[in-house]
Design a protein that fits this description.
707 residues; mainly beta; Elongation Factor Tu (Ef-tu), domain 3; 13-stranded parallel beta sheet; 57 strands; globular
């Protein structure tokens, strides 16, 4: 699969130029299937059917013969029908073939009912695109002036780079999030190139503060490449100036050629830096050398390196800087749409009983889908090329332990975290009660999923090729004592490594005393760091997992369970090291005390074991013993093969944990993969591990991944 092609639009334009297809309306029937116990919209039985066509004249009546020209017109009609009491049986808005341009947020705010939703659906076998971009027409491009083109070092790029005057076209310029071509994000011309193993990030050297506060701006030695550039105007720096899990962005504000020094200003974000911090340059005209790269100068001229003739590429610049589609209402369905091309969120949902299915969503500056509420379903979508998080689910009531009962199933989420490169996953959960099943999560600089909350089921998912740049990461990241009942079961975590070999990301990473986690019957394959890394914590069960690597994989740890929150370890009596003066502050205890509803009747009934943590008085916060006998840590029936480090468990943990029936193999043979070379990781029924560990519960390989 070519992951760079999110959704090519060439065929759309060909079809837009042809006559409208003659169609026959079929009677429709409301059907419901279920995902995780939720009713999911399948088709509709509505008394109200409206049509929208991009080629229609304004003033239509919404019929098939005289459709509305915009979705906004359809919404006004729905609002009127709602006020007249004529939406009791729901409604369907069919969106015909075409591209519907938005310079501002498209608001969908007319609610349906549970059995009669309001549906926005691409018409049968047609492609409907809601696009926040400004189209850069091919006839607006020209070859650059010869003297400027000569700046470009790469000879091939020098001949192919084209110029477009954005400012003359009235385009509001925001170089951080704006340019897309053929359904993928263009990249500001970078040195070294992005995700190039042969071009590792640069390192800050000989760093000296300029500001009075000792933080910003600062000077450092200039990489020799800077001396070869014709101009440093508009050049930016990005990377990890301080630590590998904090992103920093800066501006190259001055270059002193005589001293070989640059001055860097950090206008936003983290203000600190360190000797050796990693960074790269971007927006450098001289360094355009990869198709899809671009540069924007101070006058608004866009220099773009196309991968083919400019007339064959659909190029857009994000004209909409806000959320592109906003849903505020209940029982609304989006089905089969393409939503793309904005500097903000592609889709933002605040409502209950909302279904998003069969859509292509992305090419946006912030989140692909941000959805908050109860009983929501996100099913069978492709979400790609997003600046922040792919799919964010939140909801439920933490204080009352009421479940959101929302589901994400069968989605393909890839190429996320393209602007904010740390702690922006393909999946994100915050709140109470979510189910994530059969999703594929791939290609990102930092973690694949972050889960912060309670009662979260993560099952039958495929995580691969994430954590490619940042540090202190895991394919799946969870934390905190109060994030209870997170179940990670029957998943594959594969090919997790830093492409620059600058760190060793983990597979399942339970950080900072994370408790109440179940990690069961998963496959971890080719994970550079620990496949399962447990950062202290209580009430954690780790069973029936397989940790393995191919013979060619050169990294890897196996399993780690540190004792950071256990007696006399570094977090057991943890005082924030950045503020080591009274009043002392313990961040883990603050997590307990600050949790909504902790200690209430609802909490106690739902998570009774957590009440063994001694948190009833101030003095208890400084009691290192904290009822360790109730730790309830079980590490059993796990298989580890071909790893550098097998199983690291300190004595303080071993004193209170159940650790038994784990197998360490020197080769993969005893595991019995069906066909490792072809990616079939099903476990053969005659596998030796079933004899070595009677009752071993292997993952169900046929159920994992998208269906």
């Amino acid at each position: 699969m070519d992951r760079s092609a999110f959704r090519p639009h060439g065929r759309i334009f060909k079809r837009l130029c042809s006559a409208a297809l003659s169609v026959t309306m079929l009677a429709s029937v409301f059907m419901a299937s279920t995902i995780g116990g939720l009713a999911m919209y399948a088709s509709e039985d509505t008394s109200v059917v409206l049509y929208v066509s991009a080629g229609a004249e304004t003033g239509g009546d919404g019929s098939f013969e005289s459709p509305f020209a915009t979705v906004q017109e359809a919404n006004e009609a729905l609002k009127a029908l709602k006020n007249e009491g004529k939406l009791s049986d729901g409604a369907t808005v069919y969106i015909r073939e075409g591209i519907y341009y938005q310079t501002d947020t498209l608001k969908l705010e007319i609610s349906g009912s549970k059995n009669a939703p309001v549906v926005y659906k691409a018409y049968e076998n047609e492609t409907a695109v809601i696009d926040g971009g400004y189209v850069l027409e091919a006839n607006g491009f020209r070859h650059p002036e010869p003297d400027v083109a000569a700046w470009i070092k790469d000879e091939t790029a020098r001949e192919k780079v084209m110029v477009y005057d954005l400012r003359a076209a009235g385009v509001e310029i925001d170089s951080s999030c704006g340019l897309f071509y053929n359904g993928t994000r263009a990249v500001l011309a970078r040195y070294p190139n992005a995700w190039d193993p042969n071009g590792k990030p640069l390192n800050l050297t000989n760093v000296k503060a300029v500001g009075i506060d000792g933080t910003v701006p600062f000077t450092c030695d200039a990489d020799p490449v800077v001396s070869t550039w014709h101009s440093t105007d508009g050049v930016k720096l990005g990377g990890h100036f301080q630590i590998d899990w904090i992103q920093t962005n800066g501006i190259l504000s001055d270059y002193n050629a005589d001293e070989g020094r640059i001055t860097v200003d950090i206008p936003s974000g983290n203000k600190e830096y360190r000797e050796g911090g990693r960074y790269f340059f971007e927006n450098v005209l001289d360094e355009i050398d990869v198709p899809g790269e671009y540069y924007i100068d101070d006058s608004g001229l866009l220099y773009f390196y196309p991968d083919k003739d400019i007339s064959e590429i659909r190029i857009t610049y994000a004209q909409c800087k806000k959320t592109l589609v906003s849903v505020k209402g209940d029982n609304i369905v989006l089905d089969g749409l393409i939503i793309e091309g904005t500097g903000g969120d592609a889709l933002n949902v605040r409502g209950n009983g909302v279904t998003v299915q069969n859509c292509n969503i992305g090419c946006c500056g912030q989140d692909g889908i941000d959805i908050n509420g109860y009983n929501n379903v996100v099913y069978n979508n492709e979400i790609a090329h997003v600046g922040y998080t792919g799919l964010k689910l939140s909801g439920g009531d933490l204080a009352k332990s009421i479940s959101s009962n929302s589901v994400a199933d069968n989605n393909y989420i890839h190429d996320f975290g393209e602007i904010k490169t740390v702690y922006e996953g393909g999946l994100y959960a915050e709140g109470v009660g979510f189910t994530f099943t059969h999703n594929e999560i791939a290609y990102a600089p930092h973690y694949g999923m972050g889960a912060y909350g309670r009662d979260i089921i993560i099952k039958y998912n495929n995580f691969h090729d994430v954590c490619r740049e940042g540090g202190d990461a895991g394919a799946v990241y969870v934390a905190w004592w109060t994030s209870q009942n997170i179940v990670f079961e029957n998943n594959i975590v594969k090919d997790i490594y830093n492409i620059y070999e600058l760190g060793a990301p983990n597979g399942f990473y339970c950080d900072d005393g994370g408790s109440g986690k179940i990690v069961r019957s998963n496959l971890f394959y080719n994970v550079a760091g620990c496949s399962i890394a447990m950062g202290g914590g209580k009430d954690n069960i780790v069973t029936d997992n397989i940790i393995a690597s191919s013979s060619s994989f050169k990294y890897g740890g196996g399993f780690s369970y540190d004792g950071r929150t256990w007696y006399d370890d570094w977090c057991a009596y943890f005082v924030t090291y950045m503020n080591a003066i009274a009043p002392y502050r313990d961040i883990l205890w603050d997590n307990i005390f600050g949790e909504p509803g902790y200690g209430t009747d609802q909490w106690t009934m739902r998570y009774p074991r957590t009440m063994f943590y001694k948190t009833t008085t101030v003095e208890d916060r400084y009691d290192r013993y904290m009822s360790y006998a109730t730790a309830n840590v079980v590490i059993r029936n796990n298989v580890i093969s071909q790893k550098i480090n097998s199983m690291e468990i300190p004595l303080v943990v071993r004193r209170f944990a159940v650790i038994r029936d784990n197998m360490l193999y020197n080769t993969l043979n005893p595991i019995g993969f069906a066909d490792e070379a072809s990616g079939n990781f099903a476990i053969r029924s005659d596998s030796q591990l079933f004899r070595d560990i009677p009752g071993f519960s292997a993952y169900d390989f046929d159920e994992i991944g998208r269906k």
